Amino acid sequence: MIKNFYQKELSISAPQQRNGLQVKKDILKIQSWLVLYEMSYPGSGTFTSIDGEFGPATEQAVKNYQKLNRLPVNGSVDLKLFNKLSDPLKQAFETTPTGRNLRELVVNTAINHLAQHPFELQINKESNSGPWVKSYMDGHEGESWYWCMGFVQSVIDQATATMGKSYKTLMPPTYSCDTVGSFALTQKNLVRYTKLRSNPALVKPGDIFLIQKSPFDWIHTGIVVKAGDETIESIEGNTNSLGSTNGNAVFRRVRNFMKSKIDIVSLGPVL
Fold first, then answer.
1. Which domain holds residue 110?
2. Among 128, 120, 136, 109, which Cα is nearest to 223's?
3. What is the pLDDT of residues 223-261, one digit of tens each?
4. Element at 174 (helix H, strand E)
5. Could you say which of 9, 95, 165, 244 would form a disulfide bridge with 131 (CB–CB 3.0 to 4.6 Å)?
6. Whole-number Å distance between alpha carbons of 248 and 202
7. Which of 89, 121, 145 is the C-terminal boundary of a domain?
């Protein structure tokens, strides 16, 4: 895989505890995963501040996590415990997808990421932050780093790598919907929403959708996992229950292309 920054989010440099030698970047990782655990399992008692300080609140959050997972309750985090905390990220990026072709590989990769509950966090008062965003965005995070295309390209990278190929043969590496849309135009594999509405069969699972703001300006993207006569079902990052283009998680959504200006980047028989 080309997009392998996630590996840096799967380790800490030394065990961390309340009364020990504290490494701020390691504690930020630990606190991030404690918060993410609470978001996946509400009521766990692991929600704590993400401030890089291993104080009594973080210690108690660790103890709550250890108790829930039937581990020794000591309030400290060694590499073995951190591996368990961050395992969803490892499962998302290192599970080998199955499929008979590129489309199936893309869809199954997206489904597996969704199953690990990727959420963004707010760190230092900045949204679009945390280990999931950094993994999709090659280390970038913060308010201005919309990560929907980072998610899409991470999924496609993983799928193509399974075939021994590079996703760069399909599109340029980018975080921009506009770049992918413009490139698809030059490759003649962009299906405009007007054409899609008259021939819904043009969209297939594994394709990429782009929400059009204007003919050469796209503001959101995701992976098509199911296609119908009027709607697509998608898995997309940086969205929410309202279908926002700057939401907070990876979700599976239903979008109506008869009402929304949804263009399609067709993967087609490229690889």
1. 101-265
2. 109
3. 999 999 999 999 999 999 888 889 999 999 999 999 999
4. none
5. 9
6. 30
7. 89
